[in-house]
Amino acid sequence: MDEIAGRLNLTYTVQSEPPDGQWAELVNGSWTGMAGQLVRMEKDTVINTFALLYDRLSVMDFSVTFSTDSYSAVLRLPPPPPRWLAVFYPFSGASWAALGGTLLLLAVFSHLLLIKHNSPVYNHKLDVFSTAIWVGRVLVKQSVPLVPSAPGIRPFLMSWWLMALVLATSYVTNIIAYITVPDQPRKIRTLEELASSRHPLQMSDYGSFIPGYMATSNDPVYQRLANKLSFLSEYDEIMVEVIHNQAAIIEGTAYMDFVIRDWPVKDLYYVEEKLYPYYMSWAFQKGTSWIFVFNRYLRQMTESGLVERWRKEVVARLDKSKKSSQNSSSQHRLKPLTLVDLQTSFYILGLGMLAGLLMILIEIFTNVQHNDQ
């Protein structure tokens, strides 16, 4: 506006906030905030980030669009899973269940195949438990010193050992990758996921069109989001809800950066899918005849990149004054591996020693029973 005023040699005054503190919402047939002042001819133009909407076109005129924006949801990253559970992370729960079921079926099948020919896998009485241990030992890369002589057992073992080699190698490589590469928490990426999640939605009550549009939308996802939405008057109250109660804040995407940049936490992320993308324009009183003069300059400044450059300069000044860029970079620096990252290896070592001790005790017990008999 300063640039246009200098070109046209005009003076203007700016009102920083409407008397009612609202933006531009249609309530019971009356416009609030900046739109209300424009409709009542109390102001000549709105130079804020004003969305070009269908229901506003009937009561005011708009300039050419100079930018685009949308509404976004921002929430806190979920806490990372406990590192000591990394032993189970290389495979999903379904994979572990399938592996356990496969081992059980293989043990029963091998037992039925071997007991028919009285061909034990160890030097004692043939039983299902011993067969299960014998079948599963290849998963921990323990060789088989003796193959039973039952017919058909060798082709069966060849197929199983090949499968076990793939499983064991996959487990080792996956757990190495998990230990050395930080685990990425699962993020909400779509509005459908946000609507189905347990996260409440919070928004500042300043008269935005978003709540009404979501509540009257034919899209069931927007309706579910509207049912979860609640309003707070201050952004500090919303910050507390987001940080401590796992709420999500909904705000204009461009303005969201200014809202959250001073928050004490940095582990925040945007939901990828946006709400109601829209064009931004200046608004004028209905029937204004000199809009074309502003349109010429707005179009030139937009196409030349001045609008985007000025926006970046504002952000850069804020970053410099708040030193947020330095704080942000220090929060996201790469960190060396610590004992916390490597504790899974010690857990596996401990489990292996416990399993070995258990096997020794079982062998001693069975050997004593065999000698007594």
UniProtKB/TrEMBL annotation:
Pfam families assigned to the protein according to its UniProt record, in alphabetical order: Lig_chan, Lig_chan-Glu_bd
UniProt GO BP: detection of stimulus involved in sensory perception
PANTHER family in UniProt: IONOTROPIC RECEPTOR 20A-RELATED, IONOTROPIC RECEPTOR 60A
Cell membrane in keyword set: yes
Annotated ranges, domain Ionotropic glutamate receptor L-glutamate and glycine-binding: 2-76
Gene3D superfamilies linked to this entry: 1.10.287.70, Periplasmic binding protein-like II
Protein known as: Uncharacterized protein
Residues spanning the membrane: 87-109, 160-181, 345-365
Membrane topology: Multi-pass membrane protein
Every Ionotropic glutamate receptor C-terminal domain range: 98-353
Molecular-function GO term, any one: ligand-gated monoatomic ion channel activity
Record GO cellular component, one term: plasma membrane
Protein's cellular compartments: Cell membrane
Keyword entries, A-Z: Cell membrane, Glycoprotein, Ion channel, Ion transport, Ligand-gated ion channel, Membrane, Receptor, Transmembrane, Transmembrane helix, Transport
Family named by the database record: Belongs to the glutamate-gated ion channel (TC 1.A.10.1) family.
Organism domain of life: Eukaryota
